[in-house]
UniProtKB/TrEMBL annotation:
Descriptive protein name: BPL/LPL catalytic domain-containing protein
InterPro entries: aa-tRNA-synth_II/BPL/LPL, BPL_LPL_catalytic, Lipoate-ligase_2_inactive
Segment forming the signal sequence: none
Domain of life: Eukaryota
Residue span, BPL/LPL catalytic domain: 35-97, 120-210
Family matches, as Gene3D superfamilies: Bira Bifunctional Protein, Domain 2
Amino acid sequence: ENYLIIILSSLMAVPQTRSMGLPLINLLRLKGAPILQQLHLEERLLRTSYDNWCIINDGTTKPTVVMGVSGKAEELLEIDSVLRDEIPVIRRFTGGDLQSYPQPIMSWSSLIYKKVFQGIGDFSLRENDYVLGNRKFGGNAQSITKNRWVHHTSFLWDYEVSNMGYLKLPKRAPDYRQARDHLDFICRMKDQIPRSNFIERTIDAVGSHFVLRSVDPEASQSPLSSKFEPSSRLLKREELEEAIFKSRSRGASAASASQAS
């Protein structure tokens, strides 16, 4: 299981009312749910539910590239390799990369994980990433509507070095990255904390802010609203091929401009 990612997503009503004590949150635990399925679930709950939700998806075994809603494949991916190896590419409904997050939400979520990692490594929130020391192990993204928001984090439990070859070095990167390549920038969570311990500590930390109500996966699968259409989707091969064309055209234009000057 080299591709395991632990994903925690939180869907909240805004603002939260605490006059009656701790607010209630539904706790949904999934095991190895496909990432696209989880994204569709998150977005549906964001758009059609009024409850608070905490979703923990423990692991995924199929390598998949997930880009933010505004991500450009030609800037982020080694598309030839992605197409050759038939790696799925998903565009999710939440922002990513270096979009501005409402800092109170990021600060609030980091308080939860400070409890989780108390006594384990040098945990901190660096810009929009969770890091141990100066190495990233958790990436965050958000979507905010008028009265609700979703905040989700992908935790890198383990990875296969060869999979880093599908990713380009991003043009925009957090300052603390300091132009490091992927392998010098990220770390494996499995080297820091036992898997089951991390999940249980996370649930305990969430429970210090909410009254937890465990729900079965079936309870979250209410009939889809006729007004809801998920926006997270797999990119088609034709879209990735078009991105290659754009990238090569830009490269040719840049070369021509350089020769002309």
